[in-house]
């Protein structure tokens, strides 16, 4: 009996040619696993295609709810953004897919798992660190680090020689990754950072200049940092994100163009479409402005940066991320309330926020009369707060250090 290998299968260019390549070079029985994290129509013909190209069995697993609730929401609550722009859409999908691969490998008695990530990218790290954390006994096969194919053009040639249809063409060979959170674009003309993305690149978001001339207002309700309702209507996690994706996309919101630092040491240019995610990050942040004290908020900003780095680097299943979740969850106890946002031609701007746990006090901050604040208290505060500077200045004058 041939050994079994479980392949992370998307039906895209890379995984389409991996099935015949595994059979031709290793004589494996290939079990294809497609994890539905919101790719939409991309999964429509996956099973038929995988079987036609040599898979012995195909699993299609609907993990959209788990993806949103257990991967997206924790990252949103943390406020994690990689290098100030990237909302981690591919990064936190990979550990969930890896978890599914390990589960199916155990169920099927497979000895190996396989992924289609290239040897230049971050996904190879994300897949393999997750697999090591969940089942270190499984062998990992990464064809892009082994085979002689060196470009997407050569991969297309390989597919065409075997009659395998692929969803890209040589004149527009973008590498794309889609899920319910985002759609990413890399490669082709985007590899030159001077090139502005063309309007036909965007498959989800309306280019901002073509968005409606009238602003759209949306309200989002949160409970303990988790979004639960849009415009007063309570929705499940998947439906809520889909609704915000529609609103954001229609108004040109959520395009991020970034030259990012990959974990493997090179810079890469990516263009990301994240409409609903952009809205949620803005709304969540606005609510934290109302409900978090200064020390907690400033420290949480440090945690957010570290959290984003952990997720980006593939350390989802690390003890540190779990520990940071405990801190984040503690900060979210009072992040409950409603935020109103204005969506207009690519912009997402605050238009109001309220919370029963708000620590903003109009009575204290007002320029008008009233309130419990005594202006005289500020003098003593400034004297003590500035005492180190005063002592330093006196010393410099006495010793001649001050020029």
Please render the helix and strand layout as text:
Blueprint: E1 4-8, H1 13-26, E2 29-36, H2 46-52, E3 57-62, H3 64-78, H4 93-108, E4 112-114, H5 123-134, E5 139-141, H6 152-161, E6 175-178, E7 183-186, E8 216-223, E9 226-230, E10 233-234, H7 237-250, E11 255-261, E12 267-273, H8 275-291, H9 294-312, H10 319-331, E13 337-344, E14 347-354, H11 362-365, H12 377-385, H13 387-399
Parallel strand pairs: 1-2, 1-4, 2-3, 4-5
Antiparallel strand pairs: 6-7, 7-12, 8-9, 8-13, 9-10, 11-12, 13-14
Helix pairs in contact: 1-6, 4-5, 7-8, 9-10
Give the fraction of residues assigned to helices. 40-55%
Cα distance spanning the termini = 85 Å
Number of strands: 14
What letter string, H or E per element, gives the SSE order?
A: EHEHEHHEHEHEEEEEHEEHHHEEHHH
| Mean pLDDT across every amino acid position | 95
CATH architecture of the largest domain: 3-Layer(aba) Sandwich
Using the coordinates above, name the CATH class of the largest domain.
Alpha Beta
Number of domains: 2
Q: Going across the biggest sheet, name each strand in turn.
A: 3-2-1-4-5
Under CATH, the homologous superfamily of the largest domain reads HUPs
Strand fraction equals 15-25%
What is CATH's topology name of the largest domain?
Rossmann fold
Cα radius of gyration in angstroms:
25 Å
Structural class: alpha/beta
Instruction: Name the overall outline.
Output: elongated
């Amino acid at each position: 009996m041939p050994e079994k290998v479980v392949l992370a299968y998307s039906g895209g260019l890379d995984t389409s040619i991996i099935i015949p390549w595994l059979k031709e070079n290793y004589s494996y029985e290939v079990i294809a696993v497609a994890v539905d994290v919101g790719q939409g129509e991309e999964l429509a013909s996956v099973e038929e295609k995988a079987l036609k190209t040599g898979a012995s069995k195909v699993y299609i697993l609907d993990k959209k709810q788990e993806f949103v609730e257990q991967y997206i929401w924790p990252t949103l609550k943390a406020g994690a953004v990689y290098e100030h722009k990237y909302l981690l859409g591919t990064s936190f999908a990979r550990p969930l897919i890896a978890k599914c691969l390990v589960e199916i490998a155990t169920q099927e008695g497979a000895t190996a798992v396989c992924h289609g990530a290239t040897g230049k990218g971050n996904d190879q790290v994300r897949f393999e660190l997750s697999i090591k954390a969940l089942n270190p006994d499984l062998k990992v096969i990464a064809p892009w680090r082994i085979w002689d194919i060196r470009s997407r053009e050569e991969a297309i040639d390989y597919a065409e020689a075997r009659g395998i249809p692929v969803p890209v063409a040589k004149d527009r060979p973008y590498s794309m990754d889609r899920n319910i959170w985002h759609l990413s674009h890399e490669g082709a003309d985007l590899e030159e950072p001077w090139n502005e993305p063309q309007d036909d690149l965007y498959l989800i978001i309306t280019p901002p200049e073509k968005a409606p001339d009238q602003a759209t207002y949306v309200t989002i309700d949160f409970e303990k940092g988790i979004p639960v309702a849009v415009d007063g209507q309570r929705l499940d996690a998947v439906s809520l994100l889909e609704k915000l994706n529609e609103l954001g996309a229609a108004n040109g919101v959520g395009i991020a163009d970034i030259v990012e630092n990959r974990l493997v040491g090179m810079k890469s240019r990516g263009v990301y479409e994240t409409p609903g995610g952009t809205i949620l990050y803005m709304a969540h942040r606005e609510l934290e402005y109302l409900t978090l004290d200064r020390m907690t908020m400033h420290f949480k900003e440090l945690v957010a940066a570290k959290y984003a780095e952990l997720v980006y680097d593939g350390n989802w299943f690390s003890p540190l991320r779990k520990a940071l979740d405990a801190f984040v969850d503690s900060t979210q106890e009072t992040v409950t309330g409603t935020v109103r946002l204005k969506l207009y031609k690519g912009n997402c701007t605050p238009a109001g926020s309220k919370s029963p746990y708000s620590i903003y006090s109009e009575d204290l901050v007002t320029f008008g009369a009233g309130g419990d604040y005594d202006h005289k208290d500020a003098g003593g505060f400034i004297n003590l707060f500035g005492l180190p500077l005063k002592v330093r200045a006196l010393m410099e004058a006495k010793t001649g250090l001050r020029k």
